[in-house]
């Protein structure tokens, strides 16, 4: 087993290597791996690095703040198998000599830096299997000098490549290819598909100047294909989905095919009703077809919004219900007798089940070593004056919250969850598990809980002020919120989220960060509340996919709202929306303002393009000159959190550092469009077809499927709650 290297936080990297070099126990002959990712390292790689660590087989310096050019001396790491330098600030061209002796290299990831110039010559790297050079500034034509025999994963997306799209049709082992967001010469879609091999599982050609009409017959040779992304091109004409009936989606294909053609120029779609029964996901948002009369078609609605259902089937169900009611009215006497009998049985069964559920909850608490304070129902009933309406502090989707005074004089907030649903039991246990485990000044403190039959209550510390929405938008409390107080609110929420994402094991995704779920104490210190939708995120997994969407419209990240994909970056996106609300003093969706300002984040992107982000600032704020720079920094942090691509958003740890001015805000990219598509996209914004307005927003618990992104599809498994512990 290879020994673990102690994590060194926020060091200048040249000093770190000197310390390691003189730490002889680290450099014993059997130590071949250096994993230093995500440690806040800064500076440039020393030119002597190759001499110091010539025996390395694996090197991971990703997710740091390293800069400068790569030293040629790295070429002396002749035994290297894995090289990961992604998510840093490296720049300049890559020296040709580095790869001359790296013949054993299997995986290389240089993505998310600012490397420039031509692609390096990799012909000597005979074993290279995975190559990721995305999100850099490489330019010129794609002259990929590499051994094509072993390469199966190639990502050159989000660079500045020009000229002809490369012909990779003879690369028979290539399974994943992404050339999206480059500046290739215009090319007919049929020719581009001839340039790639038929064994691909994933193909990305978004925003690559493709044009022409896509015939689904072009895809027939790709029998293994799972995903093809052709967004933001100029593909036009008629799309014959009916032709997919002859496409081998069954038989040789063993998974669902996703075809994404968002923001093109397709105006007509031909299909048959049978299409909806195929293992096919077709995404056409942003095409002229979706602004037509597709709403009258179930399949069209499915293509344009991914809201797929069968209205004919619903009509059949309604007819059955009407028939049932008619029959019931004819035999009401008999049914009344049956109902009485069934009712008696259910009352008896409910009493039995209530006792069983209570015992089951106690058993689970014992199993997972949880010891929350258990209050009696009578104690809480007395504390809240029998849950009198004038004691109510507020009410949400999961139930009402009452102010109460316990016998010892302490003031508490009692959350009475809605009843008669197993899902409510799941929410109850979820919140007890999460809040019993975590302790942080910016998280609401759980004092205990109560179970009585179907009644489930949570007892919190009473936060003396209103929530952020009431204070900021409704001006309750008559307490002015100056800029220093607003900044402190943003920083406090960010600290709380950083603790949830990085301070406990397994990580916790809140999933419903919004102004209503941020409570303010008498000093306006923020506390994150309402963990009913929180998810425990397994450390060994890279993403979570849910079957049903839960959350609040306007705060949900696009990948979560449209595809159900969850990572820490979902909370990061919600924080970005919240930060803009705090700066602007308004809700993120407001229909009482001019149309271009209705959606706060959309308005912010327009102001970002115009270079006038300070127009977002609440007019009621009186800023000092030295405060304007801080306000602009907070806005830029929010914009970084709102980037469309989840991988471009910062972590909450980075958000805290950026808010405090410890690190600079990186480049902010919303989406790269070509000029024609960008104009049509801006026009479509007026049609109110944003993803968040089309997805379900009911706040209900979701069945969770855990899966690693490195696999073809994750296998479902349950996360043991006993694994939750503070780091």
Could you write a compact summary of the structure shown?
This protein is α/β, with parallel strands linked by helices. It folds into 4 domains: about 1-160, Leucine-rich repeat, LRR (right-handed beta-alpha superhelix) (Alpha-Beta Horseshoe); about 320-355; about 375-460, Phosphorylase Kinase, domain 1 (2-Layer Sandwich), CATH 3.30.200.20; about 470-665 and about 695-725, Transferase(Phosphotransferase), domain 1 (Orthogonal Bundle), CATH 1.10.510.10.
Characterization of this structure:
It is a single chain. The protein starts with 12 loop residues before the first helix and ends with a strand. Strands 1-3-5-7-9-11-13-15-17-19-21 form an eleven-stranded parallel β-sheet. A six-stranded parallel β-sheet has the order 2-4-6-8-10-12, with no helix packed on it. The radius of gyration is 29 Å and the shape is globular. The longest helix has 36 residues, at 332-367. The protein is of the alpha/beta class and 727 residues long. The chain has four domains: 1-162, Ribonuclease Inhibitor (Leucine-rich repeat, LRR (right-handed beta-alpha superhelix), Alpha-Beta Horseshoe); 318-357; 373-461, Phosphorylase Kinase, domain 1; 468-665 and 697-726, Transferase(Phosphotransferase) domain 1 (Transferase(Phosphotransferase), domain 1, Orthogonal Bundle).
């Amino acid at each position: 087993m290879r020994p673990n290297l102690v994590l060194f936080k926020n060091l200048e990297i040249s000093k770190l290597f000197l310390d390691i070099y003189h730490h002889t126990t680290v450099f014993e002959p059997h130590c071949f791996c250096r994993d230093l990712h995500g440690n806040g390292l800064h500076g440039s790689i020393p030119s002597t690095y190759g001499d110091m660590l010539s025996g390395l087989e694996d090197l991971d310096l990703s997710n740091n703040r390293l800069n400068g050019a790569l030293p040629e001396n790295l070429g002396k790491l002749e035994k290297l198998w894995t090289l990961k330098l992604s998510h840093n600030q490296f720049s300049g061209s890559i020296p040709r000599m580095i790869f001359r002796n790296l013949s054993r290299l299997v995986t290389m990831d240089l993505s998310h830096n600012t490397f420039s110039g031509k692609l390096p010559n990799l012909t000597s790297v005979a074993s290279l299997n995975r190559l990721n050079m995305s999100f850099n500034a490489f330019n010129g034509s794609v002259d990929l000098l590499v051994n094509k025999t072993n390469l199966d994963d190639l990502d050159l997306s989000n660079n500045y490549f020009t000229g002809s799209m490369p012909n990779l049709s003879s690369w028979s082992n290539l399974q994943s290819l992404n050339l999206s967001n480059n500046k290739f010469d215009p090319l007919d879609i049929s020719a581009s598909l001839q340039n790639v091999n038929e064994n691909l599982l994933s193909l990305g050609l978004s925003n690559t100047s493709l044009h022409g009409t896509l015939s689904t017959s072009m895809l027939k040779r790709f029998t293994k294909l799972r995903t093809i992304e052709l967004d933001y091109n100029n593909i036009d004409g008629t799309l014959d989905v009916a032709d997919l009936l002859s496409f081998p989606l069954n038989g040789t294909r063993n998974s669902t095919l996703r075809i994404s053609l968002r923001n093109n120029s397709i105006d007509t779609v031909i299909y048959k009703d049978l299409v909806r029964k195929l293992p096919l996901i077709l995404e056409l948002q942003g095409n002229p077809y979706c602004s037509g009369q597709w709403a009258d078609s179930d399949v069209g609605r499915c293509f344009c919004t991914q809201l797929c259902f069968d209205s004919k089937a619903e009509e059949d169900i309604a007819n059955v219900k009407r028939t049932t009611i008619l029959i019931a009215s004819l035999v009401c006497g008999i049914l009344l007798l049956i109902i009485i009998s069934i009712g008696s049985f259910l009352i008896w069964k409910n009493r039995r089940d209530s006792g069983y559920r209570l015992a089951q909850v106690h058993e689970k608490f014992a199993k997972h070593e949880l010891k929350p304070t258990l209050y009696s129902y009578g104690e809480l009933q007395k504390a809240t004056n029998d849950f009198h309406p004038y004691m109510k502090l507020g009410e949400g989707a999961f139930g009402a919250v009452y102010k109460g005074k316990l016998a010892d004089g302490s003031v508490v907030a009692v959350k009475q969850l809605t009843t008669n649903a197993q899902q409510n039991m799941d929410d109850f246990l979820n919140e007890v598990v999460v809040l019993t485990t975590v302790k942080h000044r910016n998280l609401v403190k759980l004092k205990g809980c109560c179970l009585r039959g179907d009644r489930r209550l949570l007892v919190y510390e009473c936060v003396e002020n209103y929530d952020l929405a009431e204070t900021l938008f409704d001006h309750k409390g008559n307490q002015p919120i100056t800029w220093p107080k607003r900044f402190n609110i943003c920083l406090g929420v960010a600290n709380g989220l950083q603790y949830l994402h990085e301070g406990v094991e397994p990580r916790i995704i809140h999933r419903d960060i919004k102004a209503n779920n941020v409570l303010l104490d008498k000093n306006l210190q923020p506390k994150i509340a309402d963990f009913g939708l929180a998810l425990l995120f397994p450390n060994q997994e890279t993403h979570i996919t849910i079957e049903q969407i839960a959350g609040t419209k306007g705060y949900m990240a696009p990948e979560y709202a449209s595809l159900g994909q969850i990572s820490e970056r979902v909370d990061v996106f919600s924080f970005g929306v919240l930060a803009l609300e705090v700066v602007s003093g308004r809700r993120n969706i407001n229909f009482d303002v001019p149309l271009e300002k209705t959606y706060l984040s959309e308005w912010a992107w327009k102001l970002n393009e115009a270079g006038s982000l300070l127009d977002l600032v609440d007019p009621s704020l009186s800023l000092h000159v030295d405060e304007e720079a801080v306000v602009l920094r907070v806005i830029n942090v929010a914009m970084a959190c709102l980037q469309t691509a989840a991988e471009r958003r910062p972590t909450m740890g980075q958000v805290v550092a950026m808010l405090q001015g410890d690190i600079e805000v990186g480049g902010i990219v919303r989406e790269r469009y070509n000029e024609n598509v960008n104009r049509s996209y801006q026009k479509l914004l007026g049609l109110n077809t944003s993803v968040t307005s089309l997805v379900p927003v009911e706040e209900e618990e979701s069945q969770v499927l855990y899966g690693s992104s490195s696999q073809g599809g994750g296998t479902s498994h349950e996360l043991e709650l006993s694994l939750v512990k503070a780091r």
